[in-house]
Amino acid sequence: MAQNKMTLSWREKSVLRVQNWIGWLSFPIWGSAVIAVMRWQFGYRVDNLAEVRKRYEQIVESATGPVLLCVNHLTKFDSVILNWSLASLWSYFSDFEKFSWNMPERTRYRGHPLYHPLCYLGQCFPIERGGSRDSVKKSMDKVKYLLGKGHIVTLFPEGRRSETGRIDTEGYSYGAGRLINQLENCTAVCVYLRGHNQKGSSSHPPRGARFQVKLDAFQPTSVHKGLRASRDIAAQVIEKMNQMETAYFAACGQ
Amino acid sequence: MNQDEVFNKIVTILSKYSKADIAAENITMETSILDDLKINSARLVDIILDFEDEFEIEVDDDDADAVATVSDGVKLIMAKL
């Protein structure tokens, strides 16, 4: 396991703590509103919701270290639908650490009158895709800090929305592997989330979409060290997600 | 191994990964690996692992983060040889 020096200042940690606190305090209002919009305005449904939530609860309860959600990426609503799927409003309010943090690209929501405040309340902090090494490292340090404090973080291991609608097993990022390699006993919870009528990637899922959410947790390890270990672990995560996708399409008869 | 030899070997490695329409002879010490050669950060890791194999060195995460240009790569390797 590689250890890197963390560069997060006291102020930066405080900013995250305050954001978490404000998000939790106002959660009954904005959390209910977001779910109401998804259910009644967009008509979204999640298959076997109780089963998915029970599985998530089991994984979180049994984890002995940090929990990182590794999710396939098809639409910009993925993290919203994911958080809705994984626990009830009451469950999140009573234990807000279960509500996963997320790192959307800054330009996707900055200045938007609705998305910007919702992203803040919904535990997002921005990353700059293709940004400087320092800004990438700062984002990684925030993730490590939050995971170290028992929070759960969502990552999209492919590094971007899938262009083909399928898991990108070639051009994926090694960020998830690097993070897991630097954390002790990190549980990677691979999540395959897809609307039944979602053909490829899109901005929003189509109205009336029914989602299937599958979870599979494991602790990736590598016999290698450093960068080679990061690459190896990233490949294991992507392979697991690819297997979940194959199972999804096999079950759909495709 | 001198700096020119290291540079030439790096150019050979970079040429395998570059998606930019840039000829190997146009790669200079100032060439940005990510921007000018249009290589993404994941492939940059692959490149640095190629450096490790080619020059029989070990590069840690922080050193790898410091590599942005060809010159950075040359300096990193020269320091570890």
Name the overall outline of chain A.
globular
Strand content of chain A: 5-15%
Return the CATH architecture of chain A.
3-Layer(aba) Sandwich
Sheet with the most strands: spatial strand order of chain A: 1-5-4-2-3
Number of domains of chain B: 1
Percent helix range of chain A: 40-55%
The name of the CATH topology of chain A is: Glycerol-3-phosphate (1)-acyltransferase
What does this protein look like?
With 254 residues, chain A is an alpha/beta fold. Chain A has a single domain, classed as Glycerol-3-phosphate (1)-acyltransferase, CATH 3.40.1130. Helices cover 47% and strands 11% of the residues of chain A. A 5-stranded mixed β-sheet of chain A has the order 1-5-4-2-3, with helices on both faces. In chain A, helix 9 packs across helix 10. The mean pLDDT of chain A is 92. Chain B has 81 residues and is an all-alpha fold. Helices cover 57% and strands 0% of the residues of chain B. The chains are: A alpha/beta (254), B mainly alpha (81). The interface between A and B is medium-sized, with 20 and 18 residues.
Offer a quick outline of the entry.
Chain A has helices at residues 10-25, 27-41, 49-62, 78-86, 89-94, 106-109, 115-121, 133-148, 175-181, 226-251; strands spanning 45-46, 67-71, 152-155, 187-195, 210-218. Chain A contains 10 helices and 5 strands; from the N terminus they run ααβαβαααααβαββα. With 81 residues, chain B is mostly helical.
